[in-house]
Design goal:
Radius of gyration: 21 Å
Structural class: mainly alpha
Shape: globular
Number of helices: 14
Largest sheet: none
Oligomer: single chain
Number of strands: 0
Distance between the termini: 60 Å
Number of domains: 2
Strand content: under 5%
Helix content: over 70%
C-alpha cells in the first residue's frame, strides 16, 4: 500500500523486494515472486535519487534476488541454459556490489556463501577470508569459513570453528557448536560429537540440523530409539529438512529389525 501511494518511495520498494525474496527462499519456489523482487531492486537502482539511495545496498539487494533465483533453479534441476544465465546474473550483481564498496565485508561474505552453494569451495574460502580481513570480529564469517574448509577437507576447519565460537555470543553459538559436532561425527569421534550437538540443543532445543546430526550419532552407536526421537524432533522443527525425513524413515525401518 505504501508503494502504491508513493511509487517513488524507494525504501518501501526495497522492503517489498526483500520480503518477496525471503518468501521464495522459504518456500523454495522460484516463481514470479523473485522476478518481481529483482525488478523492484532494479527500479531502486535506475530510478532512485543517488543522493538518497545507498547504491551498495541496492546492488546487494539485486544480487540477493539473482542469487536466490539461481540457487532455487539449481536445486530443482532446471534447464542448463537457464541455470547458466541465472548464475551469470548472480555473479555479476554480487561482484558489482563489491565494486560499489570494496571495503564492505558483508558483500565479500555474500560472494563467499554463493560460491559455497555452487560447490566452488576454494573460491568460497578466498572470499570468506577477504570478508574476515575486513571484519575480523564477525563470528558468522568465521563459522562459514569453517564450513567451506570442512567441505574442502581442510583440517584447519576445527581451528576456524573454535575461533568463531570465541567470537560468538551465547545466542549465536548453537549453530557453531552444531557444525563442530558434525565435523566430529564425520571423523567418527562420536563422544565428542554428542557433546557438541547436545550443547547446541541446550541453547536452542529446536535447532533441526543439530537434532538430525545427533540422530546420526545415535545410529552409529546403535541407539535406535534415541535416533528416531532426534529425527522426529528435527522434522517437527523444520518440515522442509528432507534429510531428517529420510533418516527418520530409515531409522524406523532398521529399529523394527532389531
Amino acid at each position: 500500500q505504501a508503494a502504491k501511494f508513493e511509487p517513488n518511495h524507494m525504501p518501501a520498494r526495497y522492503a517489498i523486494a526483500v520480503h518477496r525474496i525471503r518468501d521464495a527462499v522459504r518456500s523454495q519456489c522460484s516463481d514470479d515472486q523473485l522476478i518481481w523482487a529483482a525488478n523492484e531492486m532494479a527500479t531502486v537502482l535506475k530510478e532512485g535519487d543517488t543522493s538518497v539511495v545507498d547504491l551498495p545496498v541496492a546492488w546487494a539487494g539485486l544480487a540477493m534476488a539473482h542469487r536466490a533465483q539461481h540457487e532455487i533453479a539449481a536445486a530443482y534441476d532446471g534447464e542448463q541454459a537457464i541455470l547458466n544465465e541465472a548464475e551469470e546474473r548472480a555473479l555479476y550483481t554480487l561482484k558489482q556490489a563489491i565494486q560499489e564498496d570494496p571495503d564492505d565485508a558483508v558483500q565479500w561474505h555474500q560472494l563467499g556463501l554463493y560460491n559455497m552453494c555452487t560447490t566452488q569451495f576454494s573460491r568460497s574460502v578466498n572470499f570468506l577470508k577477504a570478508a574476515i580481513a575486513r571484519s575480523p570480529e564477525c563470528c558468522y564469517a568465521w563459522s562459514n569459513l569453517g564450513i567451506a574448509l570442512q567441505l574442502s577437507n581442510d583440517p584447519s576447519s576445527e581451528t576456524v570453528y573454535k575461533r568463531a565460537l570465541v567470537l560468538s555470543s551465547s545466542q549465536q553459538s548453537y549453530a557453531i557448536l552444531s557444525n563442530i559436532g558434525i565435523l566430529y561425527r564425520q571423523h567418527r569421534l562420536y563422544e565428542l560429537a554428542r557433546k557438541m550437538l547436545s550443547r547446541s540443543l541446550e541453547i536452542c532445543p529446536g535447532y533441526a540440523p543439530a537434532n538430525n546430526n545427533l540422530g546420526l550419532v545415535f545410529v552409529a552407536e546403535g541407539r535406535w530409539e534415541d535416533a528416531v526421537s532426534c529425527f522426529e524432533k528435527a522434522v517437527k522443527s523444520d518440515d522442509l529438512l528432507d534429510a531428517a525425513k529420510s533418516n527418520l524413515a530409515k531409522a524406523l525401518a532398521l529399529a523394527k529389525k532389531q
